[in-house]
Amino acid sequence: MKKVLRVYGGVLRLVRLLPADTRPYYAKYARENFVNYREVDVSETSVEELYQRAYNHSLWVLKKYSIDESAAKKMKEICFEQ
Q: Which site from 1, 12, 30, 40 is most exposed, i.e. has the minimal number of CB atoms within 10 Å?
């Protein structure tokens, strides 16, 4: 559970880098996704796959707003640590 909270915190830190008018939307989107991840059937989807999905989506949003991917370095470390 601690790692999940660290990933969620990482996503929210990246949201702060977005343009001010988009932050509420992406913060709400992230919150809803993490709430929904609690209900995912672990036998069908691995937790690592959910971390990968969160990281990939974060990169996509950063690219959309022309923010350097290096901003997600900490997020990558959290998502892919063993």
A: 1
